[in-house]
Amino acid sequence: MATVIVDVMLKQEIHDPQGEAVLSASHRLGFGAVKGVRQGKRFEVELEGPADGAALAAVEELARELLANPVIEEFSVHATE
């Protein structure tokens, strides 16, 4: 069994109100060194078998079609050890 991580983030040019709210709250809590926050999603996909090239390609297709909105989000896929 293998686990593949899919990280989904809003594209840089997309307004991120949740990230802005976390940034503001971090300053109120005394974390003034925080200069920016972007929110995202993380999916852990468990696969039967190894996380070889074909499996990673399949998870990438899953991310493109289901897990991320390609209009406003970008994603990365990587296998864990």
Automatic annotation (TrEMBL):
One of its GO terms (biological process) is 'de novo' IMP biosynthetic process. Pathway: Purine metabolism; IMP biosynthesis via de novo pathway; 5-amino-1-(5-phospho-D-ribosyl)imidazole from N(2)-formyl-N(1)-(5-phospho-D-ribosyl)glycinamide: step 1/2. Coiled coil: none annotated. It is found in: Cytoplasm. Keywords: ATP-binding, Cytoplasm, Ligase, Nucleotide-binding, Purine biosynthesis. It catalyses: N(2)-formyl-N(1)-(5-phospho-beta-D-ribosyl)glycinamide + L-glutamine + ATP + H2O = 2-formamido-N(1)-(5-O-phospho-beta-D-ribosyl)acetamidine + L-glutamate + ADP + phosphate + H(+). One of its GO terms (molecular function) is phosphoribosylformylglycinamidine synthase activity. Pfam families: PurS (PF02700). Its EC number is 6.3.5.3. It comes from the Bacteria. InterPro entries: PurS (IPR003850), PurS-like_sf (IPR036604). GO terms for cellular component: cytoplasm. HAMAP family: PurS. Part of the phosphoribosylformylglycinamidine synthase complex involved in the purines biosynthetic pathway. Catalyzes the ATP-dependent conversion of formylglycinamide ribonucleotide (FGAR) and glutamine to yield formylglycinamidine ribonucleotide (FGAM) and glutamate. The FGAM synthase complex is composed of three subunits. PurQ produces an ammonia molecule by converting glutamine to glutamate. PurL transfers the ammonia molecule to FGAR to form FGAM in an ATP-dependent manner. NCBIfam families: phosphoribosylformylglycinamidine synthase subunit PurS, PRK05974.1. Belongs to the PurS family. Part of the FGAM synthase complex composed of 1 PurL, 1 PurQ and 2 PurS subunits. This is Phosphoribosylformylglycinamidine synthase subunit PurS.
